[in-house]
Each structure stands twice: as C-alpha cells, then as structure tokens.
Amino acid sequence: NRVPKATVWTQNSNGNFNPFVLGGTKTYTNIIASASFSLDGTRIVTAGIDGTTAKALLWTQDSDGNFTLPPQILGGNQSYSDFIGAASFSPDGTRIAYWSANGLFLRDVKSPQSQPLHAGFRSAKNPIWSPDGKHLLFAGCKDASEENCDWWVSPAAGGEPIATHAAAHFHQLH
What we know:
mainly beta; 1 helix; 174 residues; 5% helix; four-stranded antiparallel β-sheet
C-alpha cells in the first residue's frame, strides 16, 4: 500500500536537491499551499490542507524535517473553502503571518492560538513582513468594489492599516 507523501524539495547553491517528507516518517496526504523558510534558514512553516479530513493545516518543522510545531487544524471546522495560504515567519522567527478565506492572522510560534488581524476586510492575503517585523504589507479589499482593493501596510501589533494606493497607480499605467 503506497500512500503519497507531502514532500518539500530544497536545492543547495551547488545544485544538489534534498527532498524530505513533511512530518518526518509519518505519511500525510496533504496539499501544500505554501512553504517558507525562517530568516535564519533553520525552520520551515507550511500551510495547506489535510487531504484526509479536508481541514486547513499550519505546521512548522526544522529544516531537517523534524516537527517544531505539530500539524494543527486551524479553526476547528475550516475546510477547502477556507484553506490557508502564504504563511511566513516574522524576521525574528517568533511569529507567523498567514491568510485564509477568513482573513489575515498572526500566531506566536509557541502558541496554538491565532489572532485575526483586520477582520473587517472582505479579503486580506499574501502578508509580507517588514525587515524589522513591525509591519505587514498585504493585498486586501475592504468590500466587493475594486476601488477599495489595494496593498495595505499594517502595524503587526494591530491598528488601522494604511492603503498604499499602488493599485490605483497600476491601473493608471495599464
């Protein structure tokens, strides 16, 4: 009985590939939406869907494949329509930012609890940390109208996000 395993491939600068199975020796049938290294390269955060239960998952591992945070189903009843994307470590490696259909979230790596950030947005995704870890840049829409969609800068500690107006400039140029 051969069950597919979720695998991440890394490539060294010399061109050698190093595959490792997410979860070490345990077999998963997960769908990987994103995987990202910590700034120091020692850990990987992975977001995806458990292929068996169809629940959203977020987990971290050492870059050698050992779990530092076991796979955790987020939000209890989340499913494919609520999958997690673009998870990334803060520059100091203490927090993880990720998005789902429910919005943008922050999580301390030592805690199983995630905190919503800007729940009032219709959509918020693709969080990018500032180099000092004090802000997040994200793509978001406050409502269904295109004029309220933009890239936003938000304090990572919470607070009102500020529109960059990059979307309007893009539309003027194209």
